[in-house]
Amino acid sequence: MLGTRGLYMKANYQDLGRYQDVDLDISGDAEASLPILIEQVKRGIDEGRKAAFDARGKKLAAAKLATVEQAKLDATIGWDASPITTARLCAELYSQIKDEDWSLVGTSIGLARPHRLWNFTKPYQWNGLAGGGGVGYTLPASLGAALANKRHGRLTVAIGGDGDFMFVPSTLWTAAHHQIPMLYIVHNNRAYHQEYMYLQAMAARLGRGITNADIGTTIKDPLVDYATVAKGFGVYGEGPVSDPNALAPALKRAIAMVKSGQPALLDVVMDQR
Amino acid sequence: MMIGSVKRLAAATAIAAAIAIGGAVASRAEDAPAGDLVNGKRLYLADGCFECHGRAGQGGRFNYLTPALAQIALPVESFIAFLREAPNDMPSFSADVLSDKDAADIHAYLSSLPGPKAAKDIPPILNQ
Ligand SMILES: Cc1ncc(C[n+]2csc(CCOP(=O)(O)OP(=O)(O)O)c2C)c(N)n1
Ligand SMILES: [Mg+2]
Protein backbone atom coordinates (compact mmCIF):
# COMPACT_ATOMS: atom_id res chain seq x y z
CA MET A 1 0.00 0.00 0.00
CA LEU A 2 1.18 3.46 -0.80
CA GLY A 3 1.14 5.80 2.12
CA THR A 4 4.13 7.92 1.35
CA ARG A 5 4.29 11.51 0.18
CA GLY A 6 7.52 11.28 -1.76
CA LEU A 7 9.16 8.42 -3.57
CA TYR A 8 12.54 8.38 -5.23
CA MET A 9 13.38 5.43 -7.42
CA LYS A 10 16.54 4.87 -9.38
CA ALA A 11 18.43 1.77 -10.39
CA ASN A 12 21.79 3.48 -9.93
CA TYR A 13 22.96 2.47 -6.46
CA GLN A 14 25.40 5.40 -6.32
CA ASP A 15 22.50 7.82 -5.83
CA LEU A 16 20.57 5.74 -3.35
CA GLY A 17 19.87 7.50 -0.08
CA ARG A 18 21.57 10.67 -1.19
CA TYR A 19 20.24 14.18 -1.51
CA GLN A 20 16.59 13.28 -1.94
CA ASP A 21 14.33 14.37 0.90
CA VAL A 22 11.67 11.67 0.59
CA ASP A 23 9.74 9.35 2.91
CA LEU A 24 10.65 6.18 1.13
CA ASP A 25 13.90 5.54 -0.70
CA ILE A 26 14.06 2.13 -2.36
CA SER A 27 16.29 0.77 -5.06
CA GLY A 28 14.33 -0.48 -8.02
CA ASP A 29 14.06 -0.42 -11.75
CA ALA A 30 11.68 2.31 -12.85
CA GLU A 31 10.84 0.53 -16.10
CA ALA A 32 9.69 -2.59 -14.22
CA SER A 33 8.04 -0.81 -11.28
CA LEU A 34 6.33 2.24 -12.72
CA PRO A 35 3.48 0.54 -14.61
CA ILE A 36 2.33 -1.22 -11.41
CA LEU A 37 2.83 1.92 -9.35
CA ILE A 38 0.83 4.02 -11.80
CA GLU A 39 -2.06 1.53 -11.67
CA GLN A 40 -2.02 1.67 -7.85
CA VAL A 41 -2.11 5.46 -7.90
CA LYS A 42 -4.97 5.49 -10.42
CA ARG A 43 -7.01 3.18 -8.23
CA GLY A 44 -6.51 5.49 -5.28
CA ILE A 45 -7.91 8.56 -7.05
CA ASP A 46 -11.46 9.70 -6.26
CA GLU A 47 -13.67 11.57 -8.76
CA GLY A 48 -12.94 15.03 -7.40
CA ARG A 49 -9.19 14.62 -7.62
CA LYS A 50 -9.53 13.08 -11.05
CA ALA A 51 -11.06 16.27 -12.45
CA ALA A 52 -8.29 18.34 -10.87
CA PHE A 53 -5.64 16.02 -12.32
CA ASP A 54 -7.22 16.16 -15.78
CA ALA A 55 -7.22 19.96 -15.67
CA ARG A 56 -3.61 20.04 -14.56
CA GLY A 57 -2.70 17.52 -17.27
CA LYS A 58 -4.23 19.75 -19.95
CA LYS A 59 -2.26 22.74 -18.66
CA LEU A 60 1.00 20.79 -18.65
CA ALA A 61 0.34 19.43 -22.15
CA ALA A 62 -0.20 22.97 -23.46
CA ALA A 63 2.99 24.18 -21.77
CA LYS A 64 4.93 21.28 -23.23
CA LEU A 65 3.59 22.03 -26.71
CA ALA A 66 4.69 25.66 -26.36
CA THR A 67 8.24 24.66 -25.38
CA VAL A 68 8.44 22.29 -28.36
CA GLU A 69 7.34 25.10 -30.70
CA GLN A 70 10.01 27.37 -29.20
CA ALA A 71 12.63 24.61 -29.54
CA LYS A 72 11.70 24.18 -33.21
CA LEU A 73 12.10 27.90 -33.81
CA ASP A 74 15.47 27.93 -31.98
CA ALA A 75 16.60 24.96 -34.09
CA THR A 76 16.32 26.99 -37.29
CA ILE A 77 19.18 29.33 -36.32
CA GLY A 78 22.20 28.25 -38.34
CA TRP A 79 20.17 25.51 -40.07
CA ASP A 80 22.43 25.59 -43.14
CA ALA A 81 25.66 26.16 -41.23
CA SER A 82 28.80 24.04 -41.41
CA PRO A 83 29.96 22.73 -38.95
CA ILE A 84 26.42 21.36 -38.63
CA THR A 85 24.42 22.58 -35.63
CA THR A 86 23.51 20.03 -32.97
CA ALA A 87 19.90 21.12 -33.46
CA ARG A 88 19.97 20.16 -37.13
CA LEU A 89 21.55 16.77 -36.38
CA CYS A 90 18.92 16.04 -33.75
CA ALA A 91 16.04 17.19 -35.97
CA GLU A 92 17.26 15.19 -38.98
CA LEU A 93 17.89 12.09 -36.90
CA TYR A 94 14.52 12.18 -35.16
CA SER A 95 12.61 12.70 -38.38
CA GLN A 96 14.11 9.40 -39.62
CA ILE A 97 13.60 7.31 -36.48
CA LYS A 98 10.44 8.67 -34.86
CA ASP A 99 8.18 5.98 -36.34
CA GLU A 100 10.54 3.19 -35.25
CA ASP A 101 10.83 1.65 -31.78
CA TRP A 102 13.83 3.87 -31.04
CA SER A 103 16.08 4.07 -28.00
CA LEU A 104 18.58 6.89 -27.42
CA VAL A 105 21.33 5.42 -25.26
CA GLY A 106 24.07 8.03 -25.35
CA THR A 107 24.33 11.80 -25.57
CA SER A 108 27.38 14.03 -25.89
CA ILE A 109 28.09 16.54 -23.13
CA GLY A 110 25.32 19.07 -22.57
CA LEU A 111 23.37 17.92 -25.61
CA ALA A 112 19.93 19.22 -24.67
CA ARG A 113 18.26 19.16 -28.09
CA PRO A 114 16.75 15.65 -28.07
CA HIS A 115 14.84 16.35 -24.87
CA ARG A 116 13.57 19.63 -26.23
CA LEU A 117 12.65 18.35 -29.70
CA TRP A 118 11.80 14.65 -29.41
CA ASN A 119 8.81 12.95 -27.85
CA PHE A 120 9.98 10.62 -25.08
CA THR A 121 7.19 8.30 -23.95
CA LYS A 122 8.92 5.07 -22.89
CA PRO A 123 11.46 4.41 -20.11
CA TYR A 124 14.00 2.85 -22.45
CA GLN A 125 14.04 5.78 -24.83
CA TRP A 126 16.84 7.42 -22.84
CA ASN A 127 19.18 5.81 -20.36
CA GLY A 128 20.76 8.84 -18.73
CA LEU A 129 24.32 9.98 -18.25
CA ALA A 130 27.53 8.68 -16.69
CA GLY A 131 27.07 8.72 -12.91
CA GLY A 132 30.63 9.92 -12.35
CA GLY A 133 30.87 12.21 -15.38
CA GLY A 134 33.80 10.27 -16.77
CA VAL A 135 34.77 10.92 -20.37
CA GLY A 136 35.06 7.62 -22.24
CA TYR A 137 31.75 6.37 -20.89
CA THR A 138 29.47 7.08 -23.82
CA LEU A 139 30.76 4.63 -26.45
CA PRO A 140 31.07 1.48 -24.30
CA ALA A 141 27.97 2.27 -22.19
CA SER A 142 25.95 2.79 -25.38
CA LEU A 143 27.04 -0.59 -26.66
CA GLY A 144 25.92 -2.23 -23.43
CA ALA A 145 22.51 -0.63 -23.82
CA ALA A 146 22.43 -1.66 -27.49
CA LEU A 147 23.04 -5.25 -26.44
CA ALA A 148 20.14 -5.03 -23.97
CA ASN A 149 17.94 -3.57 -26.73
CA LYS A 150 18.94 -6.18 -29.32
CA ARG A 151 16.52 -8.93 -28.30
CA HIS A 152 13.65 -6.42 -28.26
CA GLY A 153 14.44 -5.38 -31.84
CA ARG A 154 14.73 -1.73 -30.83
CA LEU A 155 16.54 0.76 -33.03
CA THR A 156 19.43 1.90 -30.85
CA VAL A 157 20.99 5.30 -31.52
CA ALA A 158 23.68 7.21 -29.64
CA ILE A 159 25.45 10.54 -30.05
CA GLY A 160 28.86 10.70 -28.37
CA GLY A 161 31.75 13.14 -28.20
CA ASP A 162 34.86 12.77 -30.34
CA GLY A 163 37.03 13.08 -27.23
CA ASP A 164 34.91 10.43 -25.52
CA PHE A 165 35.41 8.14 -28.52
CA MET A 166 39.20 8.40 -28.17
CA PHE A 167 39.15 6.56 -24.81
CA VAL A 168 37.82 3.10 -25.77
CA PRO A 169 37.51 2.90 -29.58
CA SER A 170 38.00 -0.87 -29.42
CA THR A 171 34.34 -0.99 -28.33
CA LEU A 172 33.63 -1.00 -32.06
CA TRP A 173 35.43 -4.30 -32.49
CA THR A 174 33.21 -5.78 -29.79
CA ALA A 175 30.16 -4.42 -31.62
CA ALA A 176 31.31 -6.04 -34.88
CA HIS A 177 32.32 -9.31 -33.23
CA HIS A 178 28.97 -9.77 -31.49
CA GLN A 179 26.94 -8.15 -34.26
CA ILE A 180 25.23 -5.66 -32.00
CA PRO A 181 23.13 -3.19 -33.97
CA MET A 182 23.66 0.45 -32.96
CA LEU A 183 23.89 3.74 -34.81
CA TYR A 184 26.76 5.64 -33.24
CA ILE A 185 27.05 9.27 -34.25
CA VAL A 186 30.32 10.95 -33.37
CA HIS A 187 29.60 14.53 -32.30
CA ASN A 188 32.83 15.66 -33.88
CA ASN A 189 33.54 19.17 -32.64
CA ARG A 190 37.23 18.42 -33.03
CA ALA A 191 37.86 19.24 -29.39
CA TYR A 192 37.74 18.25 -25.78
CA HIS A 193 35.41 21.18 -25.89
CA GLN A 194 34.32 21.29 -22.26
CA GLU A 195 37.97 21.92 -21.34
CA TYR A 196 38.31 24.47 -24.12
CA MET A 197 35.49 26.50 -22.55
CA TYR A 198 36.97 26.28 -19.05
CA LEU A 199 40.36 27.47 -20.30
CA GLN A 200 38.71 30.28 -22.26
CA ALA A 201 36.88 31.42 -19.16
CA MET A 202 40.06 31.35 -17.08
CA ALA A 203 42.05 33.23 -19.75
CA ALA A 204 39.42 35.96 -19.92
CA ARG A 205 39.24 36.17 -16.14
CA LEU A 206 43.03 36.52 -15.88
CA GLY A 207 43.12 38.93 -18.80
CA ARG A 208 45.72 37.10 -20.83
CA GLY A 209 46.06 34.49 -23.55
CA ILE A 210 42.44 34.67 -24.65
CA THR A 211 43.36 33.47 -28.15
CA ASN A 212 45.39 30.49 -26.90
CA ALA A 213 42.73 28.36 -25.22
CA ASP A 214 42.72 25.88 -28.10
CA ILE A 215 46.18 24.61 -27.11
CA GLY A 216 45.85 21.12 -25.66
CA THR A 217 42.04 21.23 -25.85
CA THR A 218 41.39 20.70 -29.55
CA ILE A 219 41.77 17.52 -31.59
CA LYS A 220 43.38 18.73 -34.80
CA ASP A 221 46.75 18.52 -36.59
CA PRO A 222 45.98 15.81 -37.50
CA LEU A 223 42.20 15.49 -37.59
CA VAL A 224 40.91 12.01 -36.73
CA ASP A 225 39.05 10.11 -39.46
CA TYR A 226 36.58 8.21 -37.30
CA ALA A 227 34.93 6.41 -40.23
CA THR A 228 38.27 4.88 -41.17
CA VAL A 229 38.88 3.89 -37.56
CA ALA A 230 35.47 2.18 -37.59
CA LYS A 231 36.24 0.32 -40.81
CA GLY A 232 39.49 -0.87 -39.26
CA PHE A 233 37.43 -2.54 -36.53
CA GLY A 234 35.08 -4.10 -39.09
CA VAL A 235 32.26 -1.62 -38.55
CA TYR A 236 30.39 0.32 -41.25
CA GLY A 237 31.71 3.89 -41.12
CA GLU A 238 30.84 7.03 -43.00
CA GLY A 239 32.12 10.60 -42.76
CA PRO A 240 33.31 13.13 -41.92
CA VAL A 241 29.98 14.72 -42.89
CA SER A 242 30.37 18.50 -42.92
CA ASP A 243 27.75 19.49 -45.49
CA PRO A 244 24.35 19.80 -43.76
CA ASN A 245 22.60 18.73 -46.97
CA ALA A 246 24.59 15.48 -47.03
CA LEU A 247 23.42 14.59 -43.54
CA ALA A 248 19.95 13.13 -44.24
CA PRO A 249 21.14 10.68 -46.95
CA ALA A 250 24.10 9.61 -44.79
CA LEU A 251 21.77 8.99 -41.84
CA LYS A 252 19.48 6.97 -44.09
CA ARG A 253 22.32 4.68 -45.21
CA ALA A 254 23.60 4.19 -41.66
CA ILE A 255 20.11 3.49 -40.28
CA ALA A 256 19.54 0.89 -43.02
CA MET A 257 22.76 -0.81 -41.92
CA VAL A 258 21.61 -0.86 -38.27
CA LYS A 259 18.18 -2.20 -39.22
CA SER A 260 19.95 -5.04 -41.02
CA GLY A 261 21.44 -6.00 -37.64
CA GLN A 262 24.87 -4.37 -37.84
CA PRO A 263 26.58 -1.52 -35.98
CA ALA A 264 27.25 1.68 -37.94
CA LEU A 265 29.25 4.80 -37.21
CA LEU A 266 28.59 8.24 -38.65
CA ASP A 267 31.18 10.95 -38.10
CA VAL A 268 29.39 14.32 -38.18
CA VAL A 269 31.40 17.52 -38.00
CA MET A 270 29.23 19.51 -35.63
CA ASP A 271 29.26 22.78 -33.78
CA GLN A 272 30.18 22.67 -30.12
CA ARG A 273 26.92 22.25 -28.20
CA MET B 1 31.56 49.03 -6.31
CA MET B 2 27.95 50.17 -5.90
CA ILE B 3 27.89 51.71 -9.36
CA GLY B 4 29.52 48.60 -10.78
CA SER B 5 26.86 46.30 -9.40
CA VAL B 6 24.07 48.62 -10.55
CA LYS B 7 25.54 48.67 -14.03
CA ARG B 8 25.87 44.93 -13.90
CA LEU B 9 22.26 44.51 -12.86
CA ALA B 10 21.11 46.88 -15.61
CA ALA B 11 23.09 44.94 -18.19
CA ALA B 12 21.80 41.62 -16.93
CA THR B 13 18.22 42.91 -17.05
CA ALA B 14 18.75 44.25 -20.54
CA ILE B 15 20.12 40.95 -21.81
CA ALA B 16 17.32 39.02 -20.17
CA ALA B 17 14.84 41.27 -21.99
CA ALA B 18 16.82 40.86 -25.19
CA ILE B 19 16.70 37.09 -24.89
CA ALA B 20 13.00 37.14 -24.08
CA ILE B 21 12.09 39.09 -27.20
CA GLY B 22 14.86 37.63 -29.38
CA GLY B 23 12.51 35.34 -31.30
CA ALA B 24 10.15 38.15 -32.19
CA VAL B 25 12.74 40.55 -33.55
CA ALA B 26 12.79 40.13 -37.32
CA SER B 27 15.77 42.31 -38.08
CA ARG B 28 17.71 45.03 -36.37
CA ALA B 29 20.06 45.54 -39.29
CA GLU B 30 18.84 49.11 -39.80
CA ASP B 31 19.87 50.21 -36.31
CA ALA B 32 22.99 48.05 -36.13
CA PRO B 33 26.11 50.05 -35.23
CA ALA B 34 28.53 50.83 -38.00
CA GLY B 35 31.02 48.18 -36.84
CA ASP B 36 33.47 46.17 -38.89
CA LEU B 37 31.73 42.82 -39.56
CA VAL B 38 34.83 41.08 -40.83
CA ASN B 39 36.86 42.01 -37.77
CA GLY B 40 33.86 41.13 -35.59
CA LYS B 41 33.64 37.65 -37.06
CA ARG B 42 37.38 37.13 -36.69
CA LEU B 43 37.22 38.08 -32.99
CA TYR B 44 34.04 36.08 -32.34
CA LEU B 45 36.03 33.00 -33.36
CA ALA B 46 39.53 33.92 -32.12
CA ASP B 47 38.45 35.18 -28.69
CA GLY B 48 36.29 32.15 -28.08
CA CYS B 49 32.75 33.64 -28.06
CA PHE B 50 31.65 30.85 -30.44
CA GLU B 51 32.64 28.22 -27.89
CA CYS B 52 29.52 28.86 -25.83
CA HIS B 53 27.26 30.81 -28.19
CA GLY B 54 27.79 28.77 -31.38
CA ARG B 55 29.34 29.70 -34.70
CA ALA B 56 25.93 30.71 -36.06
CA GLY B 57 25.07 32.55 -32.84
CA GLN B 58 22.54 29.79 -32.18
CA GLY B 59 23.35 29.47 -28.48
CA GLY B 60 24.81 26.47 -26.72
CA ARG B 61 25.78 25.34 -23.29
CA PHE B 62 28.55 25.90 -20.73
CA ASN B 63 27.63 24.98 -17.17
CA TYR B 64 24.04 25.87 -18.14
CA LEU B 65 22.29 26.80 -21.37
CA THR B 66 23.86 29.83 -23.04
CA PRO B 67 21.75 32.30 -25.03
CA ALA B 68 21.53 32.65 -28.80
CA LEU B 69 23.15 35.89 -29.92
CA ALA B 70 22.16 36.02 -33.60
CA GLN B 71 20.19 39.23 -34.23
CA ILE B 72 21.22 40.46 -30.80
CA ALA B 73 18.65 42.86 -29.41
CA LEU B 74 20.96 44.36 -26.78
CA PRO B 75 22.21 47.84 -27.78
CA VAL B 76 25.94 48.11 -28.30
CA GLU B 77 26.61 50.19 -25.14
CA SER B 78 24.84 47.63 -22.96
CA PHE B 79 26.63 44.82 -24.78
CA ILE B 80 30.02 46.34 -23.96
CA ALA B 81 29.01 46.99 -20.33
CA PHE B 82 27.84 43.37 -20.11
CA LEU B 83 31.18 42.02 -21.40
CA ARG B 84 33.09 44.11 -18.87
CA GLU B 85 31.24 42.66 -15.89
CA ALA B 86 29.57 39.48 -16.97
CA PRO B 87 27.37 37.59 -14.50
CA ASN B 88 27.46 33.91 -13.47
CA ASP B 89 29.98 31.73 -15.33
CA MET B 90 30.32 34.04 -18.32
CA PRO B 91 33.89 35.39 -18.12
CA SER B 92 34.34 39.16 -18.10
CA PHE B 93 36.47 40.58 -20.90
CA SER B 94 38.42 43.64 -19.76
CA ALA B 95 39.47 46.50 -22.04
CA ASP B 96 43.03 45.11 -21.78
CA VAL B 97 42.06 42.09 -23.88
CA LEU B 98 39.10 43.51 -25.84
CA SER B 99 38.80 47.19 -26.74
CA ASP B 100 35.45 49.00 -27.01
CA LYS B 101 35.99 49.18 -30.77
CA ASP B 102 36.58 45.42 -31.04
CA ALA B 103 33.56 44.70 -28.84
CA ALA B 104 31.45 46.95 -31.08
CA ASP B 105 32.70 45.02 -34.12
CA ILE B 106 31.59 41.75 -32.49
CA HIS B 107 28.22 43.36 -31.79
CA ALA B 108 27.94 44.37 -35.46
CA TYR B 109 28.72 40.81 -36.51
CA LEU B 110 26.08 39.39 -34.17
CA SER B 111 23.53 41.87 -35.54
CA SER B 112 24.30 40.56 -39.03
CA LEU B 113 23.77 36.87 -38.19
CA PRO B 114 20.33 35.63 -39.32
CA GLY B 115 17.89 34.85 -36.51
CA PRO B 116 15.28 32.09 -36.48
CA LYS B 117 13.36 31.43 -39.67
CA ALA B 118 9.92 29.95 -40.24
CA ALA B 119 10.04 26.29 -39.23
CA LYS B 120 7.25 25.61 -41.72
CA ASP B 121 9.80 25.73 -44.56
CA ILE B 122 11.95 22.98 -43.04
CA PRO B 123 10.51 19.44 -43.45
CA PRO B 124 12.65 17.65 -40.82
CA ILE B 125 11.58 20.20 -38.21
CA LEU B 126 7.91 19.88 -39.13
CA ASN B 127 8.35 16.19 -38.54
CA GLN B 128 9.17 16.55 -34.85
C1 LIG C 1 38.16 10.23 -17.49
C2 LIG C 1 38.03 11.70 -17.62
N1 LIG C 1 39.09 12.43 -18.05
C3 LIG C 1 38.98 13.77 -18.19
C4 LIG C 1 37.81 14.41 -17.86
C5 LIG C 1 37.69 15.92 -18.00
N2 LIG C 1 36.83 16.26 -19.13
C6 LIG C 1 35.53 16.61 -18.96
S1 LIG C 1 34.76 16.95 -20.39
C7 LIG C 1 36.17 16.61 -21.30
C8 LIG C 1 36.17 16.74 -22.81
C9 LIG C 1 35.34 15.72 -23.50
O1 LIG C 1 35.47 15.82 -24.89
P1 LIG C 1 34.33 15.28 -25.84
O2 LIG C 1 33.89 13.94 -25.43
O3 LIG C 1 34.78 15.44 -27.25
O4 LIG C 1 33.11 16.27 -25.52
P2 LIG C 1 33.01 17.83 -25.89
O5 LIG C 1 33.21 18.57 -24.62
O6 LIG C 1 34.00 18.12 -26.95
O7 LIG C 1 31.62 17.99 -26.41
C10 LIG C 1 37.21 16.25 -20.45
C11 LIG C 1 38.58 15.91 -20.91
C12 LIG C 1 36.73 13.61 -17.40
N3 LIG C 1 35.55 14.15 -17.07
N4 LIG C 1 36.87 12.27 -17.30
MG1 LIG D 1 34.48 16.94 -28.58
TrEMBL record, chain B:
<dbReference type="GO" id="GO:0009055">
    <property type="term" value="F:electron transfer activity"/>
</dbReference>
<protein>
    <submittedName>
        <fullName>Cytochrome c</fullName>
    </submittedName>
</protein>
<dbReference type="InterPro" id="IPR009056">
    <property type="entry name" value="Cyt_c-like_dom"/>
</dbReference>
<keyword id="KW-0479">Metal-binding</keyword>
<dbReference type="GO" id="GO:0020037">
    <property type="term" value="F:heme binding"/>
</dbReference>
<keyword id="KW-0408">Iron</keyword>
<dbReference type="GO" id="GO:0046872">
    <property type="term" value="F:metal ion binding"/>
</dbReference>
<keyword id="KW-0349">Heme</keyword>
<feature type="domain" description="Cytochrome c">
    <location>
        <begin position="35"/>
        <end position="114"/>
    </location>
</feature>
<keyword id="KW-0732">Signal</keyword>
<feature type="signal peptide">
    <location>
        <begin position="1"/>
        <end position="26"/>
    </location>
</feature>
<dbReference type="Pfam" id="PF13442">
    <property type="entry name" value="Cytochrome_CBB3"/>
</dbReference>
<dbReference type="InterPro" id="IPR036909">
    <property type="entry name" value="Cyt_c-like_dom_sf"/>
</dbReference>
